[in-house]
Design brief:
- This protein has 174 residues and is an alpha+beta fold.
- It has two domains: 34 residues; 137 residues, Porin (Beta Barrel).
- The protein is 17% helix and 61% strand.
- The chain is built from one helix and eight strands.
- The protein has an eight-stranded antiparallel β-barrel with strand order 1-2-3-4-5-6-7-8.
- It is extended and about 80 Å long.
């Protein structure tokens, strides 16, 4: 049996490199997870014959005290007398805190929308489509809670899941 020293050396170096990388990776993972925050937004609206709710969990990575970047999902439901809508999708978040109490945000959402209009004189009208939203927002932070308003620069009143380009929010991250 012929032993290839050169090949065995390469395998040994590869195995040692993987072991070293895993040890270093575990140390970095511990540091990584200490900079991750979980939370999101929750909203409920009740009005004259109208109910709406939205839940938007997310995870963000805090690069430092000023900058954070993350991703999340979104689910919403709206029901009124002759209209129902369900939306779902993903979102990408970026936060900048110029001061501890002030948070500026940018958020991109891509939402799948399924809505039904009940028409008394005809068959119900159903629509299914995807809708993008790009929000710029500002909020006031008190501890882990952020209260503010965001503005959708891509707002389309015929397609948006929101009644206005301005959307108030309450966000919590731990």
């Amino acid at each position: 049996m012929k032993v290839n020293v050169r090949q065995n050396t390469k395998i040994l170096v590869l195995v040692l490199s993987i072991i070293f990388s895993l040890q270093k990776s575990n140390a970095q993972q511990d540091d990584f997870w200490s900079n991750v925050s979980f939370g999101g937004n929750l909203g409920i609206g009740i009005g004259n014959d109208t109910f709406s709710g939205v839940i938007e969990p997310a995870a963000i990575y805090n690069f430092n005290e000023q900058f954070s970047l993350g991703a999340g999902i979104s689910f919403g439901y709206l029901e009124s007398n002759d209209y129902t809508a369900t939306n779902y999708g993903g979102r990408i978040l970026a936060f900048y805190n110029p001061l501890r109490e002030i948070q500026l945000s940018m958020e991109f959402q891509e939402m799948g929308v399924s809505r039904t209009f009940e028409i008394a004189s005809a068959e119900d009208l159903k629509e299914n489509y995807w809708y993008p939203a790009l929000f710029f927002g500002a909020g006031y932070r008190i501890g882990n809670v952020n209260v503010g308003v965001r503005y959708d620069v891509l707002y389309d009143e015929d397609k948006s899941i929101y009644g206005s380009a301005y959307v108030p929010f309450i966000g919590v991250f731990f």
